[in-house]
Amino acid sequence: MRSQQQSITSLPPSPEAERRSRMIKYTIMMSIRVVCIFCLLFAKGWWLAFFAIGAIVLPYFAVVIANVGSARRNVEVSRPGGVVQVLPHPTTDGAESDAEPEARPEGDAA
C-alpha cells in the first residue's frame, strides 16, 4: 500500500514570500493615498471630497488587506515525518527472500 505522495505545490508559501506579497499590497495602497493627498492641493468641487475620503480611508483598508492571509493556509499539508525506509529481510543463505520486506526507520542499521 502506498501513501499519498508529497507535492511541493501543496505547501503554503514561505514566510518571506508571504511577507513580501503583503508589503507590496500595502505599498501600492499607500502610494495611491499619497496621490490622493497630492491631488487635494489642486482639486476643486466634489473631487476635493473624493480625494479627501481616499486619503482618510485608504490607510485602514491598506492594513486590513495587507494582513489578510492567503486562502491556501487552510489546506492540509502532508508532513514527510512518517516516511519509513523499507529494507529487504536478511536471509541466512544470502539470497533474497520472497517474504514481505521489513519496515525500518531511516538510519537504523540492519
Automatic annotation (TrEMBL):
This is DUF3099 domain-containing protein. It holds the Pfam family DUF3099. It comes from the Bacteria. Residues 101-110 have a biased composition (Basic and acidic residues). The chain crosses the membrane at residues 23-43, 49-69. It comes from Agromyces tardus. Keywords: Membrane, Transmembrane, Transmembrane helix. The keyword Transmembrane applies. Residues 83-110 are annotated as: Disordered.
